[in-house]
From TrEMBL:
InterPro entries named in the record: DTB_synth_BioD, P-loop_NTPase
Catalytic reaction equation(s): (7R,8S)-7,8-diammoniononanoate + CO2 + ATP = (4R,5S)-dethiobiotin + ADP + phosphate + 3 H(+)
Name of this protein: ATP-dependent dethiobiotin synthetase BioD
Enzyme active site: K37
Source organism per UniProt: Amycolatopsis roodepoortensis
């Protein structure tokens, strides 16, 4: 588990929070952790981006950002509109490999989904994962519509020779509806991989100590957590 590629079924699904949660648990176990954000979009030069949230929540892990674009677009479109240089998979892979050589765990957080383009040639996070031989973690929404997006992401990953390690629900609502509860059983089927965590909505507002505790409760033992999917499904179903 030296390198993990974090991808989402869309924007705003809790990918950065999930990345920070995995980083926090690994760092708490004494591992040397790095988080690579190849492209940050929609953020100005002096504004805090996703890596600032990772540092605030996970503590002093190593972070690296390769490109920053001011427009809230895909990396390829944001580079085009700003006139700034694009990224290539080889550049991202080289940065990840450098970090991997000095750390026990390197997390690579994409922008949006697995096929969001980095450049005009069509390079994507899937290409990066393939070149690194890294496992892919899918961060998904909880409610209606998530099964199709998760299945599409997993199918693309598999057809491109990637291994999906599991799926994490990045923002579990305080009052889940019937679709969200039903999806707890159906998401692993859609992903073709186990449910490795469910993180509560609003977790990003927690302080570092509370964040680490809730991350431990919400993530699988695979990450050093205590999450038991069968128990969680049972509790959620009992509430409906």
């Amino acid at each position: 588990m030296s390198m993990l590629v974090m991808t989402g079924t869309g924007t705003g699904v809790g990918k950065t929070i999930s990345t920070a949660a995995i980083a926090a648990l690994a760092a708490g176990q004494g591992q040397r952790v790095a988080v690579l954000k190849p492209a940050q979009t929609g953020v100005g030069p002096d504004e805090p981006g996703d890596l600032a949230d990772v540092l605030r929540l996970a503590g002093p892990v190593t972070t690296r950002e390769l490109r920053r674009y001011p427009d809230p677009l895909s990396p390829e479109a944001a580079a085009r509109t700003s006139g700034l240089p694009t990224l290539t998979p080889s550049e991202i892979a080289a940065a990840a490999s450098d970090l991997d050589g000095e750390h026990d765990l390197t997390l690579i957080e994409g922008a949006g989904g697995l096929l969001v383009r980095f450049d005009a040639a069509g390079a994507t996070l899937a290409d990066v994962a393939w070149s690194l031989g890294a496992l892919v973690l899918i961060v998904a929404e909880a409610g209606l519509g998530t099964l199709n997006a998760t299945a599409l992401t997993a199918e693309v990953a598999t057809k491109r020779g990637l291994t999906v390690a599991g799926v994490i629900i990045g923002s579990w609502p305080d009052e889940p509806d019937l679709a969200a509860v039903s999806n707890l059983a159906d998401l692993p089927v859609a992903a073709g991989a186990p449910l490795l965590g469910v993180l509560p909505a609003g977790l990003g507002t927690a302080g570092p100590e509370e964040f680490a505790d809730r991350a431990k409760a919400g993530l699988s033992p695979w990450f050093g957590g205590e999450f038991d999917p069968e128990c969680f499904v049972g509790r959620a179903s009992a509430q409906k």
